[in-house]
Design a protein that fits this description.
The protein has two domains: about 25-160, 60s Ribosomal Protein L30, Chain: A (2-Layer Sandwich); about 180-425, Orthogonal Bundle (2-methylcitrate dehydratase PrpD). The protein is about 55% helix and about 10% strand. The chain is built from 16 helices and eight strands. The protein has a six-stranded mixed sheet. The chain has a two-stranded antiparallel ribbon with strand order 1-8. Helix 3 (about 55-60) packs across helix 16, helix 10 (about 265-285) packs across helix 14 and helix 13 runs parallel beside helix 15. It holds the Pfam family SDH_alpha. One of its GO terms (biological process) is L-cysteine catabolic process to pyruvate.
């Protein structure tokens, strides 16, 4: 693929849009961002707060620790952090600069302020509306479709922004996601000028490997990464790759204050597409350029899958990311396009049944399972084994299979998603 090609520029734009830093699980951070933006509009600390959220937001905020809050969980805590100490100009790092003194202010604000959480009746699975009041003054901010896509701003009855993009999976992007396909992703990864992606990819390596190391060394959540490392040891690269990826999620789900570089709006998916690939690249001694190309491949394959599924779903995003990581690991071993597509399909055939029941410590174990499936998918093809079209949801041709996965994740599991939310909320 040539640099002057429109496709080349499109894939580069996709990486620039997607591989951005976020501190903490992106759903509570989106709430904090909306609350911080509304407080900026209001111009003062509100005395009452109403937060309306779609079911998937509730699902993904309920059980995860909000960073820089002293261990607080939930929608109320995320909103309070954004109101009291958020910096909306930092986007998904909106609460990264909170001090110890501000943490105490957040706790006191929660104790003394009426914060009401209500379901938001919306066809959009990612939808948040925050309304802040102080006396007769109020400000309202709505975020829809993606985590930082502000679609409505209002103050005291004056509409400051109205931007509705119904059904747009990636509403706040300037790239063409519909044009993505596996062959072009492979071609781009093979030919991209390293100078065009070096900063993007090196930042992902630095951030995500750092939180992985922190997770392995610390005590976070269920310590899935440490359990894997202790149980299976460090001699096997498969075990190391799974443990390293899981450990990053262990730390992130339990309030670690390190940022990660996300993929498809998710830090866990960003960790999954990158950390196992780096572990394998170091094991194989392939050199920086080969590792960077593998990471370009992994990131774009995950984004391609999620374009059909959407940001949030009952379909676990780690599955897409783990399959993409497996394909990149095949590439590191010298695999061609043929090895990449068969690895991807094999992995998806193995673990596409994993559900998303919100952000919480067990995400780390699901990541380990998805990475394992990605690696198994590659080794199966090495041994001349594969799943064929007609085997369950697998169809002949990689794009046809990805289309099936998109249907399953976006449409087929809608009822499953609703039931999961009812179970989690006791309704």
């Amino acid at each position: 693929m040539r640099k002057e090609d429109e496709k080349y520029r499109n894939y580069l734009q996709i990486l620039q849009e997607e591989l951005i830093p976020a501190m903490g699980c992106t759903e509570p951070i989106a709430i904090a961002y909306a609350a911080a933006k509304a407080k900026e509009l209001l111009g003062e600390i509100p005395t009452s707060v109403v937060i309306e959220a779609s079911g998937n937001i509730v699902k993904n905020v309920k059980s995860v620790v909000v960073p820089n809050t002293g261990g607080l969980k939930g929608i109320e805590a995320a909103a309070a952090a954004g109101i009291v100490a958020g910096r909306p100009e930092l986007s998904l790092e909106v609460i990264s600069g909170i001090t110890q003194a501000e943490q105490e202010k957040i706790k006191k604000y929660l104790e003394n302020t009426a914060i009401k959480v209500m379901p938001l009746n919306s066809d959009c699975v990612l939808d948040i509306q925050v309304c802040l009041r102080n006396g007769d003054e109020y400000a309202k901010v709505r975020i829809s479709e993606t985590h930082t896509n502000i679609t409505h701003m209002e103050k005291n009855g004056e509409i400051l922004l109205e931007k509705r993009i119904p059904g747009a999976v990636f509403a706040d992007t300037n790239s063409d996601r519909a044009a993505m396909n596996v062959w072009d992703i492979w071609d781009f990864a093979e030919t991209v000028d390293m100078d065009d992606v070096r900063n993007i990819i090196s930042r992902q390596i630095d951030y995500n490997m750092e939180i992985s190391r922190t997770g392995l060394a610390g005590n976070y959540g269920a310590n899935v990464g440490r359990v894997l490392a202790t149980t299976y040891g460090h001699n096997d690269v498969v075990s190391r790759a799974k443990a390293a990826a899981a450990a990053g999620s262990d730390a992130r789900m339990s309030g670690c204050e390190l940022p990660v570089i996300i993929n498809s709006g998710s830090g866990n998916q960003g960790i999954t597409v990158s950390v196992p690939v780096v572990v394998y690249a170091e094991e194989l001694g392939v050199g920086e350029e080969k590792m960077y190309r593998a990471l370009v491949l992994s990131n774009l394959l995950a984004i391609h899958q999620k374009t059909r599924i959407g940001r949030l779903s009952a379909y676990c995003g780690a599955v897409s990311a783990g399959a993409a990581a497996g394909a990149a690991i095949a590439y590191l071993h010298g695999g061609s396009y043929k090895e990449i597509i068969h690895t991807l399909v094999n992995a998806l055939a193995i673990v596409s049944g994993i559900i998303c029941d919100g952000a919480k410590p067990s995400c780390a174990a699901k990541i380990a399972a998805a990475v394992d499936a990605g690696i198994l998918g590659y080794h199966m093809y090495q041994e001349g084994q594969q799943f064929y079209g007609g085997d369950g949801i697998i169809s002949k041709g990689v794009e046809a299979t990805l289309e099936n996965i998109g249907r399953l994740g976006k449409d087929g599991m809608r009822g499953t998603d609703e039931e999961i939310i009812r179970i989690m909320t006791g309704t």
